Amino acid sequence: MPRARDTDTDDALMAAYAGGDAGAFEILYRRHQAGLYRFVRRLLGTALAAQADEVFQDTWLRVVQSRTRWEPQGATFRTWLYTLAHHRVIDLLRRSGREVAIDAFEDEEDGHAWEPEPGAAWQHWPAPAGAALHGEELAFWRRAGERLLQCLEQLPLPQRSAFLLHHDDGLALDEVARALEVGFETAKTRLRYAMSKLRACMGAYLAPLREPAA
Fold this sequence. Notes:
Blueprint: H1 10-18, H2 22-44, H3 52-65, H4 77-95, H5 134-153, H6 157-168, H7 173-180, H8 184-203
Helix pairs in contact: 1-2, 2-3, 2-4, 3-4, 4-7, 5-8, 6-7, 6-8, 7-8
């Protein structure tokens, strides 16, 4: 049997790995390790950041344990991989005593605008105004990214999962639904709520940009 190659598809690599080619697993790991770790880390948030390595490693362990039983069944390998990680995150949250609302949240929208926690707005941030402020502009957007991560942590887990899979990891909405094991409309609703809340959160802290001086 020919050895696995970097150009092989994920499905072909899993088939090769099931047949005893350890090199196929190494290629899969290299291909997906960065995205998977980022997903796990951002899904857990700062409070459980120390457990990110545990969830990451256990997800790959389950890939190893399932190699002879894995079948695509309409989902890509990456979607299946994120499903495994999502299950592990939920298990960890429940084990740590945190409440994980998975089904009830779809009815949470009650017509009241969601607001971020009270705190200091970004009043002293530099407003990008062209090349002369390039260094400040860079710092501005770096801190904007940090604020986005803070806003993400305020989302319920189902909405945060949908946002990360779609916008951070680039999964199509139908793949998001498969990864989260929900219907397409449910995934769409979760993503819509997540986007609405993130816009409100970011808008409360990020002042509009000023036009460059003429």
